[in-house]
Amino acid sequence: DTETAMQERLVALQDLARSCPMGFEILSQSLGLAGLLLVKNKAYGNSAADPVRIFSRDLSADSGILVRMDDKLSRLRALEVGSPDWNATLWDLAGYIVLWFVKDQRERGDG
To answer: pLDDT exceeding 90 applies to what percent of the chain?
Structure first.
């Protein structure tokens, strides 16, 4: 089942992390991003992949995610590198990139 497969995948990632110079730091940051996305998914539902389209009725889910990524890139240009807002915006951008791949995987039926 899916939960068992996920547990096996996490164990495999832990094993791999042990053999990498920055393995546990990479794993920790990746899990932090996953946690952020899960909290937001619980709070907002699938608004990135299935927007409610109140104001942007003609905008596809693909376009919506790409617009949000553009907004984050624009914001990064206006912020000081390494500032708390810059780091938070980078996390948001990374989240939208992950959501893009999740949406793409679902559309292809690979989920």
So the answer is: 71
